Amino acid sequence: MIAPPRSDAEIPTYVEALGLPGLADIHVHFLPQNVLDKVWSYFDDAEANYGRPWPIHYRFDSDTRLRILRDLGLHAIPALTYPHRPGMAAWLNDWNRDFAAAHHDVIHCATLFAEPESADYVPAALASGARLFKVHVQVGGFAPDDRVLDPAWAALSEAQVPIVIHAGSEPLPGAFTGPEAIARVLERFPALNFVIAHMGMPEYEAFADLAEAYSGVHLDTTMYVSGFFSSPAEVTPSFRERLISLQDKVVLGSDFPNIPYPYADQVSGLAGLDLGDEWMRAVLWDNGARLLGLTQRVPGER
């Protein structure tokens, strides 16, 4: 295998050695400044909230963060947002539209909340060009299988737009986290393109089951085996075999900028699974490029 990067500065050389045009990271956050300030304040109090420190590694202004991502090799940059209360999602969607319009390489994203208005603002966001959605079950504190969301899920299913959904029960459990509610949504809307954030941490096996059962379900690598919550050494041989069989379903995610370590730790951790360079090519570029509508690499090409 090609030696993984030891620092962010080495990532472009590593990506080039793999023969990839760049990184297709599906899990990157940009937020309105007032919302971002509150998010960072929450992480500043991580000892109380998570029981451990969580220093924001990329605590810079928006322009600096965009430059860092471009330097790392992102050709298309998600700007994922998520609401924590009713009446917030439509406003965030307006912000997302304007932020994407102001930057040529930012992906037009959108979000939703379990509220009747989602039946209107989700189709409106799609009509205005949204290509990627984010849903956070624990922060939002709502059930993803709430029937009020059926019109929104139906619109997203028809549009075949990917939805990065944080539904796992770590780093904090919620009243509605876990795979069960996601499975019920998929029973009603089996064509949804759910991208399970954090590989479904800690319910890895159950979310992998959903990825195997539904063609549109993918797993994003956000914080997985980065050394913060888990390391490659903790992944069992049987789950490594599952990851090999799910090669076309595992998508690079980072949670940039809200991570407590360098971006390279995520990439080197994935390489540390020793699943092969072709697996890394699929995860770092091919699968995300397919979901985001980017130019895809021809399989087998270097």
Structure characterization notes:
With 302 residues, this protein is α/β, with parallel strands linked by helices. It has one domain (8-291): TIM Barrel (Alpha-Beta Barrel). Helix content is 42%, strand content 7%. The protein contains 13 helices and 6 strands. It has helices at 11-17, 33-44, 46-49, 62-72, 89-102, 118-127, 137-140, 150-159, 179-188, 204-213, 237-245, 263-271, 277-292; strands at 109-111, 132-136, 163-166, 194-196, 218-220, 250-251. The chain has a 6-stranded parallel beta sheet. The longest helix is centred in the C-terminal third of the chain and has 16 residues, at 277-292. It is globular, with a radius of gyration of 18 Å.
Assign an overall shape: globular
* β-sheet strand percentage: 5-15%
Q: Would you state the CATH class?
A: Alpha Beta
Radius of gyration: 18 Å
The separation of the N and C termini measures: 13 Å
Number of domains: 1
Q: Estimate the helix proportion, in percent.
A: 40-55%
Which topology does CATH recognise? Answer: TIM Barrel
CATH superfamily: Metal-dependent hydrolases
Number of strands: 6
Average predicted confidence as pLDDT: 96
Largest sheet: spatial strand order: 1-2-3-4-5-6
- What ranges have pLDDT less than 50 throughout 5 or more consecutive residues? none
Question: What is the chain-wise order of helices and strands?
Answer: HHHHHEHEHHEHEHEHEHH
Structural class: alpha/beta
What is the CATH-assigned architecture?
Alpha-Beta Barrel
How does the major sheet shape up? 6 strands, parallel
SS summary, helix count: 13
Organism: Brevibacterium casei
GO molecular function, one term: hydrolase activity
InterPro entries: ACMSD, Amidohydro-rel, Metal_Hydrolase
Domain Amidohydrolase-related: 25-294
